[in-house]
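Annex B.
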Amino acid sequence: LHECGSTLQMTPDSLIYKTSLSYKPTPSGNLVIVRTNAAEVPIECHYPRKSNVSSNAVRPTWAPFHSTLSAEERLMFSLRLMNDDWSTERLSNGFQLGESLHLQADVVSGDHVPLRLFVDDCVATLSPDRSSSPRYALIDLNGCLVDGRSDDTTSVFISPRPRQETLQFMVDAFKFAGDDRNLIYITCHLKVAPADQAPNPLNKACSFNKASSLWAPVEGTGDICSCCETGNCP
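Zona pellucida sperm-binding protein 3: predicted structure tokens.
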């Protein structure tokens, strides 16, 4: 940071080190011509002034509260209704019975280590209060798509994922029996685990395969889904 002609600029929130990387092509093989252009690439390194910064030579024994807090705040979760080919968000939230809801959960992880997103549970209610009655569990038991276990549904997690930070699933449209209201609220609990951590009974995405009558995970070994059938998840 202090060599190669670097300059330091200080703002109210940041320390900014600036330098330039210069490239000058030289002839190779044929000494008469070159096939690349000269280039100068500006480089900036930004460091927050209101945080904890340490070099590899410093091993603090205290918990860096500010940097931990800012890292946690950079996790942004979303749950969206998508169109049938998953390319864009669906403009309408109206469905006819017989259609399928395409739901996509995402997390923007900022500067975190690679993360894998899971949907821990989803519940449908007639009010925004997820504990209200009547209520119907779509996903339960730490990632079991229990709605797909019913005889008359094709609800399923989409496999493979488009990326580790995204999880897509389809749910057949439904209404609450004996209730004429057309507005249904779906509330989901989303969570993440390190992408290099193998899925387990607590972090999983399992669908019921009607052809084989078995639960199958989006990733991981089949045994992590066994508690979806027994209902005895840890």
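The helical segments are 65-73, 226-230. The chain has a mean pLDDT of 88. Further annotation is deferred to the next reporting cycle.
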